[in-house]
Amino acid sequence: xxxxxxxxxxxxxxxxxxxxxxxxxxxxxxxxxxxxxxVRGTRRSYMTASMLNALGLSLASAYLFAAAINMAxxxxxxxxxxxIIAYFILRYWLTIKDEDNWWKGRGTKIRRWIRSLxxxxxxxxxxxxx
Length: 130
Known about the structure:
Shape: extended
Number of domains: 2
Organism: Arthrobacter hankyongi
Protein name: GtrA-like protein domain-containing protein
Distance between the termini: 68 Å
Helix content: over 70%
Keywords: Membrane, Transmembrane, Transmembrane helix
Order of helices and strands: HHHHH
Radius of gyration: 22 Å
Oligomer: single chain
Structural class: mainly alpha
Transmembrane segments: 12-34, 46-66, 72-94
Protein backbone atom coordinates (compact mmCIF):
# COMPACT_ATOMS: atom_id res chain seq x y z
CA UNK A 1 0.00 0.00 0.00
CA UNK A 2 2.81 2.40 0.82
CA UNK A 3 4.40 1.66 -2.55
CA UNK A 4 1.27 2.94 -4.29
CA UNK A 5 1.47 6.26 -2.43
CA UNK A 6 5.19 6.53 -3.11
CA UNK A 7 4.55 6.04 -6.83
CA UNK A 8 1.60 8.43 -6.69
CA UNK A 9 3.86 11.07 -5.17
CA UNK A 10 6.14 10.87 -8.23
CA UNK A 11 3.31 11.09 -10.78
CA UNK A 12 2.33 14.15 -12.84
CA UNK A 13 -1.07 14.10 -11.13
CA UNK A 14 0.58 14.74 -7.77
CA UNK A 15 2.58 17.59 -9.31
CA UNK A 16 -0.66 19.14 -10.57
CA UNK A 17 -2.32 18.74 -7.18
CA UNK A 18 0.68 20.35 -5.51
CA UNK A 19 0.61 23.32 -7.89
CA UNK A 20 -3.13 23.74 -7.34
CA UNK A 21 -2.56 23.75 -3.56
CA UNK A 22 0.19 26.35 -3.84
CA UNK A 23 -1.91 28.61 -6.05
CA UNK A 24 -4.90 28.21 -3.72
CA UNK A 25 -2.70 29.16 -0.80
CA UNK A 26 -1.59 32.31 -2.65
CA UNK A 27 -5.23 33.24 -3.24
CA UNK A 28 -5.97 32.52 0.43
CA UNK A 29 -3.08 34.70 1.57
CA UNK A 30 -4.14 37.51 -0.77
CA UNK A 31 -7.67 37.33 0.65
CA UNK A 32 -6.22 37.34 4.14
CA UNK A 33 -4.29 40.54 3.49
CA UNK A 34 -7.31 42.11 1.80
CA UNK A 35 -9.52 41.20 4.75
CA UNK A 36 -7.07 42.67 7.25
CA UNK A 37 -6.89 45.93 5.28
CA UNK A 38 -10.66 46.33 4.78
CA VAL A 39 -12.93 48.28 7.09
CA ARG A 40 -15.13 46.09 9.24
CA GLY A 41 -18.79 46.03 8.23
CA THR A 42 -18.20 46.96 4.58
CA ARG A 43 -19.05 44.88 1.54
CA ARG A 44 -15.35 44.26 0.90
CA SER A 45 -14.91 42.82 4.38
CA TYR A 46 -18.09 40.74 3.98
CA MET A 47 -16.98 39.27 0.65
CA THR A 48 -13.42 38.46 1.70
CA ALA A 49 -14.58 36.86 4.95
CA SER A 50 -17.03 34.71 2.96
CA MET A 51 -14.31 33.62 0.54
CA LEU A 52 -11.85 32.92 3.37
CA ASN A 53 -14.42 30.69 5.05
CA ALA A 54 -15.17 28.84 1.83
CA LEU A 55 -11.52 28.31 0.94
CA GLY A 56 -10.06 27.72 4.41
CA LEU A 57 -11.36 24.27 5.28
CA SER A 58 -10.81 22.76 1.83
CA LEU A 59 -7.27 24.15 1.66
CA ALA A 60 -6.42 22.87 5.14
CA SER A 61 -7.72 19.40 4.30
CA ALA A 62 -5.70 19.38 1.06
CA TYR A 63 -2.52 20.26 2.98
CA LEU A 64 -3.28 17.54 5.57
CA PHE A 65 -3.73 15.04 2.73
CA ALA A 66 -0.41 16.16 1.24
CA ALA A 67 1.25 15.82 4.64
CA ALA A 68 -0.04 12.26 4.98
CA ILE A 69 1.17 11.33 1.48
CA ASN A 70 4.60 12.81 2.14
CA MET A 71 4.90 11.11 5.52
CA ALA A 72 3.94 7.78 3.92
CA UNK A 73 6.60 8.34 1.27
CA UNK A 74 9.30 9.07 3.88
CA UNK A 75 9.57 12.78 3.10
CA UNK A 76 9.37 13.88 6.69
CA UNK A 77 10.43 17.50 6.23
CA UNK A 78 7.89 18.18 3.47
CA UNK A 79 5.16 16.36 5.36
CA UNK A 80 5.84 18.30 8.53
CA UNK A 81 5.92 21.57 6.60
CA UNK A 82 2.53 20.78 4.99
CA UNK A 83 1.08 19.89 8.40
CA ILE A 84 2.29 23.20 9.86
CA ILE A 85 0.71 25.12 6.97
CA ALA A 86 -2.57 23.25 7.52
CA TYR A 87 -2.41 24.07 11.25
CA PHE A 88 -2.09 27.80 10.63
CA ILE A 89 -4.84 27.77 8.01
CA LEU A 90 -7.19 25.96 10.40
CA ARG A 91 -6.24 28.24 13.26
CA TYR A 92 -7.11 31.35 11.29
CA TRP A 93 -10.24 29.70 9.83
CA LEU A 94 -11.55 29.13 13.34
CA THR A 95 -10.96 32.76 14.34
CA ILE A 96 -12.69 34.23 11.29
CA LYS A 97 -15.86 32.17 11.83
CA ASP A 98 -17.16 34.80 14.27
CA GLU A 99 -17.08 37.55 11.66
CA ASP A 100 -20.05 38.69 9.62
CA ASN A 101 -20.05 36.81 6.32
CA TRP A 102 -22.36 34.98 3.95
CA TRP A 103 -22.08 31.70 5.87
CA LYS A 104 -23.06 33.13 9.27
CA GLY A 105 -26.60 32.14 10.16
CA ARG A 106 -27.08 30.27 6.91
CA GLY A 107 -28.45 27.16 8.66
CA THR A 108 -31.05 29.21 10.55
CA LYS A 109 -32.14 30.96 7.35
CA ILE A 110 -32.51 27.65 5.52
CA ARG A 111 -34.51 26.19 8.45
CA ARG A 112 -36.84 29.22 8.45
CA TRP A 113 -37.29 28.96 4.70
CA ILE A 114 -38.19 25.26 4.93
CA ARG A 115 -40.52 25.99 7.84
CA SER A 116 -42.24 28.74 5.85
CA LEU A 117 -42.74 26.35 2.94
CA UNK A 118 -44.29 23.72 5.16
CA UNK A 119 -46.24 26.28 7.20
CA UNK A 120 -47.92 27.53 4.04
CA UNK A 121 -49.40 24.11 3.32
CA UNK A 122 -50.42 23.51 6.95
CA UNK A 123 -52.32 26.78 7.23
CA UNK A 124 -54.31 26.01 4.07
CA UNK A 125 -55.20 22.56 5.39
CA UNK A 126 -56.11 23.98 8.81
CA UNK A 127 -58.24 26.73 7.25
CA UNK A 128 -60.08 24.22 5.07
CA UNK A 129 -60.79 21.95 8.02
CA UNK A 130 -62.12 24.77 10.26
